[in-house]
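stage 2 :: seqdesign
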């Protein structure tokens, strides 16, 4: 048995630390004494040392189960870095050939390997389990143990079988470690691994140096660019939910002079590890990534983590924000929230098996509650992980937007009661938007089908804005008065509490969102794409006048000539030839040839008259130039293929396919999708949207949704916008 002094000397010898952090020493003592141990420790708390040190000083080899090959590689490199012997740690997974596998087994037999990192799938192979039975196993470590639980944020079915495999190999203590687990997940992990009697060590989840903020998704791209510029030269991570968004946004940051790189599972492994190294070596400041990034990335000085989209669970959110400020220095966690994103995720869950769907919906409802809460965000998060927090005197008490700028609360019990009554009187057949339409007195296909416009409650809440009613209904869901049934496409049902509330309403406080209307009206003038803010305001004014003149000549709206982001970019690049113009953000050859001549001639004169030095290189490119789908989409549309089939063939979501198509038409390439639109919208409907766009100041989605959101869904409006640009501008 190792005494405390011996353990401290091993710590100094192998890791160079003078003392243990938190409960590391206790954890290691228990494991060395042959006990099962469960460790719940937030990112940056020193989890890996809890199994690396005992592995180095025990007889035999420790088997460490880990979910990702990249993570294993990082850990092995780190362990080899502190040892004179490279054989001390190995990886055993599908990436090894026969010779490499034999070398690993020989090193284990000889006793020189102390740590073996394996994926759970590798453990199931008979040849490996038979081999493990013949060698001494010091203990099993299950890293990222939340992967075992269906309630965890990164569930892996193959993890569920680990207990059975461990029993097959032989008797050795087990240490399970995770950085995020609610009480429910913890219980699930212990039960599945058969470690109900394990010694549990739970460090505090409070990271007092992190600041939490949630902003509405308004002018989001611009907001992020502005934010990152304030952190110039510092490291940050931006998480997006889709690979497409990662690629596009990384490029947008580059266009804005930010050293950013993309990272997602769709990149080949060489590119991934190059990008990871660039970030670690500070050749790049910002990584734009899906959650494939960050597992095991040990960069202590990440100064900000931005969530472009809210993640699917609070565990994911906590884990990802936990990458910031691991050195105890500043860490700013900024998330952008729009309830529409949650609805998209709900739609995605609708296709899942019932059990998985229920878990997913429960996790999402917690995310909504966090995003919309007006209480201390730290208190909310810690409560979720089963930890109490004093929001007045606790460490980091003032470190979130709600505590720093408390929202004014208003009691809306009368209106909450009205919303519940509408749901009751309409026999629980309405979805969230329908409830809001009825309260606002807006007719829609749903209200007409049931003649709801004839009811006395129709329009009873029209003195308020729709976002006010949406907020009340969402809060009624979050606080368990209502539930949303995804199986019936999101119809809202009353829960027992709701009927009591109707009989006897009690205080119902929500945050007063006074600026929302102003913010929304500002946002509706936003262009579809984002580009850098213009450097030359004088030139920009001239270019806008020129665009207006040209639009008049062609009888089309100005945005159909060039979009605002393209004009902005012209004021920075000063293109004086058609070829140079094709390098401008959002301008393809078609567009340059059709409208470009007067623009490049004007810019050439302007440059000469004002003695302007142009940039040596044309740096910026429109996102669409990189699109590998462009040729495929153009050919498929020529053959009049169904858009759903096109998306499936390239494993794209409909949303991604439409983004690709928008890119193509905005660059001036022809793409006639009339054949597809004719099947979904009749002539009058098409004409109505077309006429609106002809008169509109811009073609922003928020403008279109404001005008037509009750009658058409976003997909139909996007398709019509593609057709419009194609027909009148290309």
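stage 2 :: out
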């Amino acid at each position: 048995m190792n005494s405390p002094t011996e353990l401290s000397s091993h710590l100094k010898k192998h890791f160079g630390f003078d003392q243990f952090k938190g409960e590391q020493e206790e954890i290691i003592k228990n494991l060395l004494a042959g006990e099962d141990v469960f460790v719940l420790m937030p990112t940056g708390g020193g989890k890996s040392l809890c199994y690396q040190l005992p592995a180095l000083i025990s007889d035999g080899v420790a088997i460490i189960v880990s979910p990702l090959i990249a993570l294993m590689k990082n850990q092995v490199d780190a362990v080899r870095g502190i040892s004179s012997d490279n054989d001390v740690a190995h990886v055993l997974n599908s990436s090894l050939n026969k010779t490499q596998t034999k070398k690993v087994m020989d090193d284990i037999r000889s006793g020189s390997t102390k740590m073996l990192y394996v994926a759970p799938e590798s453990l199931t192979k008979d040849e490996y389990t038979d081999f493990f039975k013949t060698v001494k196993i010091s203990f099993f470590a299950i890293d990222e143990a939340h992967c075992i639980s269906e309630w965890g944020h990164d569930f892996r079915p193959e993890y569920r079988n680990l207990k059975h495999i461990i029993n097959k190999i032989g008797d050795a203590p087990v240490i399970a470690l995770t950085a995020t687990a609610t009480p429910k997940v913890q219980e699930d992990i212990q039960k599945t691994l058969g470690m109900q009697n394990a010694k549990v060590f739970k460090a505090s989840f409070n990271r007092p140096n992190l600041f939490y903020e949630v902003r509405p998704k308004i002018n989001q791209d611009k907001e992020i660019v502005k934010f990152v510029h304030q952190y110039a030269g510092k490291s940050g991570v931006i998480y997006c939910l889709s690979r497409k968004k990662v690629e596009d946004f990384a490029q947008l940051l580059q266009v804005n002079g930010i050293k950013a790189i993309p990272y997602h599972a769709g990149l080949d492994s060489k590119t991934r590890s190059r990008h990871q190294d660039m970030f670690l070596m500070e050749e790049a400041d910002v990584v734009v990534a899906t959650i494939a990034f960050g597992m095991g990335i040990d960069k202590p000085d990440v100064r900000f983590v931005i969530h472009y989209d809210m993640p699917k669970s609070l565990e994911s959110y906590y884990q990802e924000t936990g990458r910031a400020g691991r050195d105890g220095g500043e860490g700013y966690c900024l998330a952008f929230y729009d309830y529409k994103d949650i609805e998209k995720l709900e739609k995605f869950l609708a296709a899942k098996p019932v059990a998985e769907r229920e878990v997913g919906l429960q996790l999402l409802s917690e995310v909504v509650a966090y995003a919309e809460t007006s209480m201390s965000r730290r208190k909310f998060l810690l409560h979720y992980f089963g930890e109490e927090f004093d929001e007045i005197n606790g460490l980091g008490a003032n470190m979130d937007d709600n505590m720093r700028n408390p929202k004014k609360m208003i009691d809306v019990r009368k209106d909450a009661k009205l919303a519940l009554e509408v749901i009751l009187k309409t026999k629980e057949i309405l979805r969230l938007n329908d409830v809001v339409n009825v309260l606002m007195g807006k007719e829609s296909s749903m209200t007409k089908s049931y003649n709801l416009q004839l009811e006395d409650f129709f329009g009873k809440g029209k003195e308020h804005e729709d976002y006010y009613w949406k907020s009340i209904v969402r809060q009624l869901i979050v606080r368990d008065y209502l539930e949303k049934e995804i199986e019936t496409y999101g119809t809202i049902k009353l829960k027992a509490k709701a009927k009591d509330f109707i009989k006897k309403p009690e205080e119902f406080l929500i945050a007063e969102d006074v600026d929302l209307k102003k913010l929304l009206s500002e946002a509706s003038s936003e262009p579809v794409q984002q580009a850098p803010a213009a450097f030359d305001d004088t030139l920009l004014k001239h270019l806008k006048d020129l665009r207006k003149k040209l639009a008049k000549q062609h009888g089309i709206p100005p945005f159909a000539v060039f979009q605002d982001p393209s004009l902005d970019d012209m004021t920075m690049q000063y293109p004086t030839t058609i070829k140079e113009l094709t390098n401008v953000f959002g301008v393809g050859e078609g567009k340059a040839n059709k409208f470009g001549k007067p623009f490049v001639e004007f810019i050439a004169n302007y440059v000469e008259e004002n003695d302007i030095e142009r940039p040596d290189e044309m740096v910026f490119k429109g996102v669409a130039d990189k699109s590998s789908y462009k040729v495929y989409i153009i050919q498929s549309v020529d053959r009049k293929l169904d858009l759903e089939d096109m998306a499936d063939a390239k494993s794209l979501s409909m949303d991604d396919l439409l983004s690709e198509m928008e890119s193509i038409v905005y660059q001036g390439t022809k793409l006639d999708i009339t054949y597809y639109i004719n099947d979904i919208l009749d002539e009058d409907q098409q004409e109505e949207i077309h006429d609106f766009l002809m008169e509109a100041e811009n073609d922003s989605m928020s403008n279109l949704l404001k005008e037509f959101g009750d009658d058409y869904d976003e997909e139909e409006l996007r398709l019509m916008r593609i057709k419009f640009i194609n027909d009148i501008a290309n």
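stage 3 :: structure notes
- Residues 524-624 form a domain with the DNA polymerase; domain 1 fold (CATH 1.10.150.80).
- Residues 43 and 322 are 6 Å apart (CA to CA).
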